[in-house]
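To whoever is on call:

I kicked off a structure prediction for a single chain this morning and the downstream step that reads the tokens threw a length-mismatch warning. I double-checked the sequence; it's 313 residues and nothing unusual in it as far as I can see. Pasting both halves so you can look.
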Amino acid sequence: MKYFGLQSQIRKNNTNSVLILMMFPLVFYGLTWLFFFFMSLSSEHEQFGLVNVNGSFLTTVPWITIGVIIWFIIAWFSHTAIIDAATNSKPLERKENKKVYNLVENLCISTGMQTPKINIIDDDSLNAFASGINTKTYSISLSRGIINKLQDDELEAVIAHELTHIRNRDVRLLIISIVFVGIFGFITEMLFRSLRLGRIGRGKKAGGAIVIALLLALLGYLLASLFRFALSRKREYLADAGSAELTRRPLSLASALRKVSVDPTIEAVRRKDVAQMFIENPQEGEEKSTFSFANLFSTHPPIQKRIQLLEQY
């Protein structure tokens, strides 16, 4: 993949992210419609046609929407506590490391943004992430290893990458993608348990409805997961481009990524949804190739590909 200039990369990634984000509700409502359509095919009533399918679908849409909104509210207000607990990050005191504060504040001044909270992860591996959904909760977390082992220009480039995530509201997009995947996962698990425990009701019609719903939920879970991974990869490319724009030193980020790739594993991270927030996913293997079907299920692009793009600027 080749981009013709920094701004071209930013525009292309933003466009692709919006398109991917739109696919989540389209898939959700589309599979709901398909459920009623397949049920109509097995109906004993000959008159049960598309009009009835559309009617059943439109009747169900408000209830589905209300359920999704409630799910979003719970995820929205609980994510910060979940992230902090999952990474064991704690506030970094200014007196402990004035250099980090100076780097963050100088970059924030240059962009006109409010300085986020700065946290530290007590781990010698090299990694970092940004989190928060508003100015009160925005934060950047850096591992002790990435602070101690990177040169100043490399550390500044990493911080600029994380600030770009904040500027682009990437954590909000992450929550949205996680919520949709979680909804499909919950529905799939609920239907599978009902089928396994024999709680599907009596008769072929009830059993058939559960099987159809389970297959559609599995399809939705697969598609939502692919969209989530694709969205995450696009935002990483965009954050890399943002770092290059802020620091005017894309090679510094490329050098930092090489060092990060050697040891990105933060031992405290166990949750997959939290792991994908880091500059390099600490749970994914190092054998990602530039062209691989397995990369469709990766939250981050191959780090060598990111380095190649940075070296083009």
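Update from on-call: the warning came from a stale cache, not from the record. Cleared it. Sanity check on the structure: Residues 6-310 form one domain.
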